[in-house]
Design brief:
The complex is a heterodimer of chains A (447) and B (257). Chain A is an all-alpha fold and 447 residues long. Helix content of chain A is 63%, strand content 2%. The radius of gyration of chain A is 29 Å and the shape is globular. Among the domains of chain B are: 82 residues, NADH-ubiquinone/plastoquinone oxidoreductase chain 6, subunit NuoJ (Four Helix Bundle (Hemerythrin (Met), subunit A), Up-down Bundle), CATH 1.20.120.1200; 60 residues, no CATH class. In chain B, strands 1-2 form a two-stranded antiparallel sheet. Chain B is elongated, with a radius of gyration of 34 Å. The chains are: A mainly alpha (447), B mainly alpha (257). Chains A and B meet through helix 4 and helix 5 of A and helix 2, helix 3, helix 5 and strand 2 of B.
């Protein structure tokens, strides 16, 4: 690959690559264990409970013990499962989850055993697209798990996850576009470098909000956890999984949470760059300190995930899809449009930021007034249509109006023929047997 | 990138692609075929990346593996094309023609691309990418200059196709869809029946078997809690004798008062 513009990337000795890969692997596993414990503790606090506090200090080893228990559980494979695919599905899920972390930067260039190297496994010109690509491969794990279980609920969960992740990936990809426009690059390390004076979350707030929403949909977390909606689908795609295979889905879910959080931090919160008051300190952005800032930002997003889970009820499926397709995607398209126009005006026509803001305010005011006028107009039109329809309904319905027999439209009543009257009378004269229900509503009205 | 590394990548990914392609044709289950083709796509993407076209490789995975193949899988799972199709030819000589046309297409592609490339100088991948300062920059430069019309026309075609599909599957709503509020109001209307969940069989009863009716707070039996198929064979109904006798006693004592 063209390593020319990427400085240290691609020049690491082989042992450094292995060291970094193993370190990332270990960090992700430990972070998963920590996140499970953290989630249980925080949710407990939010529900006035205490949460796991027995194994280890403050219950920290609880998820490790749970992991051991899960691994030694009996493995049950359904008779109707498609065994090969059933085996591959959790492997795809977990592998994809680990792979995405290869391009996430943790810190600046440091010296490890005398070798200058960036705290990032690798980077290349399209590494943000790489994360998207790996995420879309990871969905195969969910879908195949649902299909190969040979059971209804997992299949429904798998179908939901397909539709959901494809829909929300569009919104997610669109939210990246403004970042790419401003950073002039799709590589994670360069995007961080371009956020040096100000984070993209500030100047590209709509993109940030859209990404944060779609990342919850992408990771199948509450309130968008429809693929595993336990109230409707038992456990969703992993209903038929047990033991270590279930543990792999569990692992993948939590690593995906960390990945999308890390990507959010990278793209919008300046990655490993120190937040404002600390950034005044000269050595805040050199050496090993940035790992701490990175970790804090990632934990911020993970806390948000947990908070959402404890607060919001699950969305209804149609509302959820409507939100993705009819709100998030058009909103991101409109925002990209605005950003692109603003950049052209600033770069090609030498508008200052202040002028751009004034023009933007005027445009927004015009749009608001215009949409209000349009609303008033369409309301009037609708009222006229309704009145006309009322008039139409007053005219008795003619079943043979156009020369063909046609059924009545909603609201129209079919004229009674003598046979219909007879049928209605005989129906009314029949004694309807009382229901077996013994609820005392009829006998005691005040019960 | 050294020759050795590239060769190893080519052998692994090329071999896996061929295996995947063969598996796609030879596997009996439609879903397995779809998986094999996804494998081919991913291996091709890795080969693109190894050939200094990282953008193409990533887009290949996102668009083809992530969206197109996923929709295929979606349809296969919904329709349930599961049983192995019969191997009887429905069109006579289908396979022969298939092989012939396949070979013809391969000859055409190899010949066409080969002759088009024959007089082009071999400048190397790095030089090709560096012409505009990088792989992504190069693609952007070409798409938004020489190939702008083709790019826009393709986009317009795709949008038209998408809109057409939406219109073809669109159905005019017969009447306005009931909102959540209207549904809730209807559920609580007089005569609409039980507004919420009915009690499960066996609630507060002495057994939790599916044919044991739940007991309501006033002690009466909620016969509705037993599923209709079980209820209709009333010989299988386990009546909670203790509770029923208590209720009967209560009713009788009330009658006497």
């Amino acid at each position: 690959m063209s390593g020319s513009s990427f400085g240290f990337f691609g020049t690491d000795p082989w042992w450094m690559v292995i060291l970094k890969a193993v370190a990332i692997f270990g960090m992700l596993v430990v972070l998963t264990l920590f996140t499970i414990w953290w989630e249980r503790r925080v949710v407990s606090r939010m529900q006035n409970r205490i949460g796991p506090n027995r194994v280890g200090p403050a219950g920290l080893l609880q998820s490790l013990m749970d992991g051991f228990k899960l691994a030694f559980k009996e493995e049950i494979i359904p008779k109707s499962a498609h065994v090969a695919v059933y085996w591959i599905a959790p492997v795809i899920s977990a592998t994809a989850a680990f792979l995405a972390f290869a391009v996430i930067p943790f810190g600046p260039t440091v010296s490890i055993f005398g070798v200058e190297t960036p705290l990032q496994l690798t980077d290349f010109p399209v590494s943000v697209l790489y994360v998207l690509a790996i995420a879309s491969v990871g969905v195969y794990g969910l879908v195949l798990a649902g299909w190969s279980s040979g059971s209804t609920y997992p299949l429904l969960g798998g179908l939901r996850s397909t539709a959901q992740v494809i829909s929300y990936e569009i919104a997610m990809g669109l939210s990246f576009v403004a970042v790419f426009l401003f950073a002039g690059s799709m590589s994670t390390s360069e995007i961080i470098a371009k956020q040096q004076p100000i984070w993209f979350a500030v100047i590209l707030l709509p993109s940030f909000l859209i990404y944060v929403t779609s990342m919850v949909g992408e990771t199948n977390r509450a309130p968008f956890d429809l693929p595993e909606a336990e109230g409707e689908l038992v456990g969703g795609f992993h209903t038929e999984y047990s033991s270590l295979k279930f543990a792999m889905f569990f692992l993948a879910e939590y690593i995906n949470m960390v990945t999308v959080s890390a990507l959010a931090a990278t793209l919008f919160l300046g990655g490993w760059l120190a937040p404002w008051p600390i950034s005044l300190w000269d050595s805040a952005n050199v050496g090993w300190w940035p790992i701490l800032w990175w970790l804090l930002k990632v934990q911020l997003f993970i806390f948000m995930f947990i908070w959402l889970r404890a607060t919001l009820p699950r969305l209804r499926y149609d509302q959820f899809m409507k939100f993705g397709w009819k709100i998030l995607i058009p909103a991101s398209l409109a925002w990209i449009f605005i950003v692109a126009i603003a950049r052209v005006f600033r770069d090609d026509f030498a508008f200052s930021n202040q002028q751009l803001l004034i023009v933007g305010a005027v445009v927004i005011a015009v749009l608001l007034v215009g949409s209000w006028l349009l609303q008033v107009r369409s309301d009037r039109k609708q009222a006229a249509i309704d009145a006309e329809r009322e008039q139409e309904l007053l005219v008795p319905f003619d079943a043979m109006g156009g020369g063909h027999p046609v059924p009545p439209m909603p609201g129209q009543v079919l004229a009674y023929t003598p046979r219909r009257i007879l049928a209605a009378q005989s129906l009314a004269s029949q004694v309807i047997p009382p229901a077996l229900d013994s609820t005392p509503t009829e006998e005691t009205p005040n019960a | 990138m050294s020759i050795d590394g590239e060769l190893i990548v080519f052998i692994i990914c090329g071999g896996l692609s061929v295996i995947g392609a063969l598996g796609m044709v030879l596997s009996r289950k439609a879903v397995h075929s779809a998986l094999f083709i996804a494998m081919v796509m991913i291996n091709l993407a890795i080969l693109y990346i190894a050939n200094s076209a990282p953008f193409l490789g990533m887009v290949q995975i996102i668009v083809y593996t992530g969206a197109v193949m996923m929709l295929f899988l979606f349809v296969l799972m919904v329709v349930g094309v599961d049983s192995s199709d019969s191997l009887i030819e429905t069109i006579r000589g289908q396979r022969l023609f298939g092989i012939l046309f396949g070979v013809a297409l391969a000859v055409l592609l190899i010949g066409g691309i080969g002759s088009a490339m024959a007089d082009k100088p071999d400048i190397g991948l790095k030089a090709a990418n560096d012409e505009f300062g990088g792989n992504v920059e190069g693609i952007a430069n070409l798409i938004f200059s020489d190939y702008l019309f083709a790019f826009q026309a393709t986009a317009a075609l795709l949008i038209t196709a998408g809109l057409g599909a939406v219109i073809l599957t669109h159905r005019e709503a017969w009447k306005p869809k009931a909102t959540q509020k209207e549904l809730s109001v209807a559920r609580f209307m007089v005569g609409a029946g039980h507004p919420g969940n009915k009690p499960n069989p066996g609630v507060y009863a002495r057994h939790n078997a599916v044919n044991t009716p739940a007991i309501l707070p006033d002690g009466s039996l909620a016969l509705d809690s037993v599923p209709e198929p079980v209820r209709s064979r009333d010989d299988s109904l386990i009546v909670d004798h203790r509770v029923v006798s208590t209720v009967v006693e209560l009713v009788e004592s009330e009658d006497q008062n």
